[in-house]
Design a protein that fits this description.
3 domains, mainly alpha, Fumarase C, Chain A, domain 2, two-stranded antiparallel sheet, Fumarase C, Chain B, domain 1, about 475 residues, 8 strands, Ribonucleotide Reductase Protein R1, domain 1
């Protein structure tokens, strides 16, 4: 029977590592130290980390700092992980001490052991490829981890931008479709002044359009990286040629417009760019919560009909709930919570590094993933929304609030008199009442959808 584990050694002694694992003793120690969230390090961070390691290996090989045979094997291992293989070899908890050192070592060990295997060795031997001496050559956790997070976040931001675009388009189509549906607007959850349902959906689409622009500009906040700065941004232990070349290699490997920070000490010590981006993600979450809350209210009022997707109750037959807006609202709340955690983590770094990078990474990537999925979900849901024009009209015709639209034509005093007359009359249809009092032609013109959506009124149309 084969051994179920192998023995590896480090400065702290010996430890058992599962025989089939590509990770090594440093990862094993972290597994036994950190079991907090029940979530593993985000896969997108692992993929981005391997892009960074690939760029470092290529740079070291080009400068003849790393033997070509070793470098090519490490690069091949990186490509395998980037392509989706070996993802089960990154089992660490998302939350960990050490500013992300455990994740860096996990990546180093997996790449080293896989490279070792590609060169004819066996995992755990480290005879040919060493995790520190070869894979981590001229690097530190403190420059590779923030750089990898920025790379992962930029790719996710591009996904999010596409998702927001899809949602914006779906809302704009509804804005056009509902442009002729007259309804009563509401403020303070009370009936207010006339508008169209198209205008209401237009406000939704404009909010999402702003989010799209903000997210597009976010990438600029993350393009400056500290790769080459090693431990605290001074570049200690790394050759100058490597520091200048590695950023160019990373740009080529990722296809992103990255640049090396002019002050790497600053870039290593400060994490404010992540707080800034997270704040923009929070703004998008706020808009999603607001829009989904409004969709639920409009559905309750019967002015729109949301797609019915599933049974709404285990006890009430026929009940159907607005589950998609509810789910989207919960995702938005979670993003706001993640922003609070990330903000605190960004402000908690001390002196030359931020020890709380794992929480920053977990919060940032969780928010991005949630928003990407939420936007896609809503973009697929919105096209199925229909308007109940008859219900909108009934609310409109029976709402005394529509007299406000008469002010430019009859004045405040006369409008108030008409409202009092209507209330005394016992009639229910104020639109019909006003048509009798002021003439059907004028009333129809005032409440025509085209006039309701226009900005202001034309003075020559004032009633005399």
């Amino acid at each position: 029977m084969q051994n179920e584990y192998r023995i590896e050694k480090d400065a702290f002694g010996e430890l058992k590592v599962p025989a089939g694992a590509y990770w090594g003793i440093q990862t094993q120690r972290a597994l036994e130290s950190f079991f907090l969230s029940g979530r593993v390090v985000h896969s997108s961070l692992i993929g981005a980390y391997c892009l960074v390691k690939k760029a470092c290996a290529q740079t070291n090989m080009e400068l003849k700092l790393l033997e070509e045979k070793k470098a090519q094997a490490v690069i091949a291992a990186c490509d395998e992980v980037i392509g989706g293989k070996l993802r089960g070899q990154f089992p660490l908890d998302a939350l960990q001490g050490g500013a992300g050192t455990s994740t860096n070592m996990n990546v180093n060990e997996v790449l080293a052991n896989r490279a070792e295997e590609l060169l004819g060795g066996r995992p755990g031997e480290y005879r040919i490829v060493d995790p520190i001496e070869d894979v981590n050559l001229n690097q530190s956790t403190n420059d590779t981890y923030p750089t990898a997070l920025k790379v992962a976040a930029i790719f996710k931001l591009r996904e999010l931008s596409a998702g927001i675009s899809g949602l914006q388009g779906a809302l704009q189509k509804k804005e056009k479709e509902f442009s002729g549906v007259v309804k009563i607007g509401r403020t303070e959850l009370q009936e207010a002044v006339p508008m169209t349902l198209g205008q209401e959906f237009g406000a939704f689409s404009e909010a999402i359009a702003r989010d799209r622009w903000r997210i597009f500009k976010c990438e600029e906040r993350l393009r400056v990286v500290n790769i080459g700065g090693t431990a605290i941004g001074t570049g200690l232990t790394a050759p100058r040629d490597y520091i200048f070349l590695v950023i160019e290699t990373l740009r080529r490997v990722t296809g992103l417009g990255l640049s090396r920070g002019e002050n790497l000490v600053d870039q290593t010590a400060n994490s404010d760019c992540f707080a800034e981006v997270s704040g923009i993600l929070k703004a998008h979450a706020c808009n999603l919560i607001k829009i989904c809350g409004d969709l639920r209210l409009l559905n309750l009022l019967g002015e729109i009909v949301l797609p019915q997707l599933q049974t709404g109750s285990s006890i009430m037959p026929g009940k159907c709930n607005p589950v998609i807006p509810e789910a989207a609202g919960q995702a938005g709340i979670r993003v706001i919570a993640a922003d609070a955690a990330l903000t605190r983590a960004c402000s908690s770094g001390s002196l030359q590094i931020n020890e709380f990078m794992p929480l920053i990474a977990d919060s940032m990537l969780e928010s991005l993933e949630l928003l990407i999925n939420t936007d896609r979900m809503l973009a697929g849901h919105v096209p199925g929304i229909s308007a109940d024009a008859g219900q909108c009209r009934r609310y409109f015709d029976h709402s005394p609030a529509i007299v406000t639209a008469l002010l430019p034509y009859v004045g405040y005093g006369r409008a108030g008199e008409l409202l009092n007359e209507f209330r005394r009359s016992g009639e229910e249809d104020i639109h019909a009442f006003l048509s009798v009092k002021l003439g059907r032609e004028l009333v129809n013109r005032i409440f025509d959808p085209c006039n309701l959506v226009s900005l202001g009124y034309r003075q020559r149309e004032k009633y005399t």
